[in-house]
Every structure is written in C-alpha cells, then in structure tokens.
TrEMBL record:
<dbReference type="InterPro" id="IPR016300">
    <property type="entry name" value="ATPase_ArsA/GET3"/>
</dbReference>
<dbReference type="GO" id="GO:0016887">
    <property type="term" value="F:ATP hydrolysis activity"/>
</dbReference>
<dbReference type="InterPro" id="IPR025723">
    <property type="entry name" value="ArsA/GET3_ATPase-like"/>
</dbReference>
<dbReference type="GO" id="GO:0005524">
    <property type="term" value="F:ATP binding"/>
</dbReference>
<dbReference type="InterPro" id="IPR027417">
    <property type="entry name" value="P-loop_NTPase"/>
</dbReference>
<protein>
    <submittedName>
        <fullName>Anion-transporting ATPase</fullName>
    </submittedName>
</protein>
<feature type="domain" description="ArsA/GET3 Anion-transporting ATPase-like">
    <location>
        <begin position="17"/>
        <end position="284"/>
    </location>
</feature>
<dbReference type="Pfam" id="PF02374">
    <property type="entry name" value="ArsA_ATPase"/>
</dbReference>
C-alpha cells in the first residue's frame, strides 16, 4: 500500500504552523531541506521566516548568499515576499544570554569569569541541544517571525534536545546547586553526590581546572542559586512547546539503508514522545521516464546495436537507462522498509539533482520539487 503524500506546501503555508523542525541522520540533505522550506515559505507564501541551523556546516550560509552565520538572525537579500532571516546557533553566546537575562550585571560578570562556568557552558554534554531550545524559545518570544525552521545536528544527537533540557536542568536548577554548594563548603566529596556520568564530567573538569574545581563550583553555585534556578521550569515549558500542534517535525532521509534505519528510529521516538510528526522527506530519489523498458531489455538492445555496428551513443544511452532502472528498483526496496515500519506517515520525494546546492536559485528548485510530488 502506498503511503499518504506529504503536502509540504500546505504545511509551511498554514498560519497555525509556527515551528518546523527538520531532523535526520548526517548527509541526507537536512540543511538544504530546512533552507529550501524557509525560502519557499517566505517567497511563495509571504511569511516572515527565520531558519536556525545547529549543524556547524557552512553550506547554509553559502547557499543563502551570506558570508557567515552567527547567533544573530541575518537578513537574506534578494528574497521576495515575506522576508527571510538566517542564523547559526552559538552555544556559548546563547548560554551567556540566558545568564544576562536572569542575573544582575554584577552577578553576570562574576559568573562569566568563573572557570567552572567557562568549561561547562562550552563542553557540558547536552548544552548544545539545550541552548538550541533556549534559542528557539527566544525567537518565539520575539514574535517577529511567522515561521521558524530549525535544522538539527546530524545523527541521533538530532533528538538529544528531547532529553537535554531536563538533563541539564536537573544539574543547574536551584536544588542541585544548593547541594553542590553545601557539599563543597562542608568538605564532603561532591563526587559522592553525583551519578557515574556526572562523576565522569567532574573528573574531566578537574583535569582542566585542577584543585580549584570544587571551589569554583561553590562560587558558581552561590552566584546562581538565588537568581538562576529556573532551568527546569523553562525546560518543561520548551518541551511542551515542542509538543504543541503549532510545531511540526519533518524526518529527512535518503534512499540508503542506514538513513532509512535512522529515519525509522526518529519516527518512532517522536511518536513515543507525542511530538507532532508531519511526515518524511525522502531526498535524492531517482525516477525513469521509459518505465516499460526493463534493464534487461535495455542491456540486450545495447549489445545488439554494438554487434550490428550501429551508433554507439544510442547503446550508451540504453546502458545508462539500465543502470537507472536498477537504481530505482533498489531505492524502492529500501524506501519500502520505512513504509512497512511506519505506514501511516505521509511522505514526499525530492529528486536527485545533478549538482550540489550553491545559491538561492538552487534552493528554490529544491523547494519546488519538494512541494510538487
């Protein structure tokens, strides 16, 4: 049974759709998908759109005609319609912004100068995913854009943001900070109060900071304890926002075994977490125009032409057709694995393009292909 078709145009044109999150394994065209959808939402549907990438790849900036992307939305020129901004998450700067928003300037300066904060804000597991959600919350709070399109990190870490907010909040909220403060001041080992994963983290930080680590933790905790204890509250609010019908998740994949396997994982995880899954974008798909000509017949005809000394260019064309037919058959079998595992998920196919995406025209072509299945 054929899966239902995903109407990507209807999704991004719908004024009730406020956030689109693109997730998938690495190398499947996720960044291009996010940029193409954002551009089409702006130009075709007149929506004020911003695209946020968490993947450090520079392809998005290049294709949008920008010299660079950073933590501040930058206007994309030569875009008609509603308008498009683009940005790339700067984890450290976003963490600093959170500190500034919840402390006085004096407290912020003390926190920024603390070695424990400097190490944690840039290296703590889950910080990137948590700060991505903080940045998403900041963009939503500005109420400046009709649509926010988020390009997530590659591989399964793309879904770490479902766990990271609560994980980081448990460490940073007021109660944990008070425990750290008390244990440090009382001379008790902070390691005995942490899980094995946190113990590994503290050992790592200890290598960086030396014997001052516990003192730095205590100072950090004292600075934040009374004014910066709302991580869990905001994390829970962000998680609920992801479950809101105004958010739509798109799983992006290619017709490759590993990518389809990851897509099935993403789909099941999103379903378990009750996240609003809109559908699957199957990139780099191939198709044949002469469907009645099998690979075997094409190869046989090519051999016959060459044996008769007829135009070799025709024989070469027949061989290309045979390879394409074989490729399509392979992709169909691979894609069927997803359909079997997730039969009710809408799907759209995007054809393989002869070259990589380099500019706005290329992105427009991708957007058109994605929405004209």
């Amino acid at each position: 049974m054929e899966p239902p078709e995903l109407d990507a145009d209807a999704l991004i044109a719908n004024p009730d759709t406020k956030v689109v999150v693109c997730c998938g394994s690495g190398g499947v065209g996720k960044t291009t998908t996010a940029a193409a959808l954002a551009l089409r939402a702006a130009e075709v549907h007149g929506r004020q759109t911003v695209v946020l990438t968490i993947d450090p790849a520079r392809r998005l900036a290049q294709s949008l005609g920008l010299a660079e992307l950073d933590n501040t939305p930058r206007k994309v020129e030569k875009v008609t319609g509603g308008g498009l901004d683009a940005m790339m998450l700067d984890m450290k700067r976003t963490f600093d912004e959170v500190v500034l928003a919840h402390t006085t300037p004096e407290q912020a300066a003390e926190i920024f100068g603390n070695p424990f904060y400097q190490a944690m804000s840039g290296t703590f597991a889950g910080t990137q995913e948590y700060m991505a959600m903080e940045k998403l919350a900041q963009l939503r709070a500005k109420d400046q854009w009709d649509l926010i399109v988020v390009d997530t990190p590659p591989s399964r870490s793309a879904l770490d943001f479902l766990d990271a907010p609560a994980r980081l909040a448990r460490f940073l909220d007021g109660r944990m900070l008070r425990i750290l403060t008390a244990s440090s001041r009382g001379g008790h080992s902070v390691f005995s109060l942490m899980t094995s994963s946190m113990s590994f983290f503290t050992r790592t930080i200890n290598k960086i900071l030396g014997g001052r680590m516990l003192t730095d933790i205590a100072t950090f905790a004292a600075s934040l304890d009374s004014t910066f204890g709302g991580f869990r509250t905001r994390a829970e609010a962000t998680y609920r926002a992801l479950q809101d019908p105004q958010t739509a998740f798109l799983v992006v994949a290619a017709c490759e075994p590993d990518a389809i396997r990851e897509a099935i994982y993403f789909t099941r995880r999103l379903t378990e977490e009750r996240m609003p899954l809109a559908g699957l974008v199957l990139n780099r798909s191939h198709a044949v125009t002469a469907e009645g000509l099998s690979a075997e017949r094409a190869l046989g005809a090519a051999e016959g032409l060459e044996a008769d000394g007829v135009d070799s260019a025709t024989a070469d064309t027949l061989r290309v057709h045979a390879r394409l037919v074989t490729t399509v058959a392979t992709e169909t079998r691979i894609a069927a694995r997803y359909t079997t595992a997730c039969p009710s998920v809408p799907r759209t196919r995007v054809p393989a393009f002869p070259a990589d995406v380099h500019d706005l025209d290329d992105l427009r072509a991708v957007g058109t292909a994605m929405t004209n299945t």
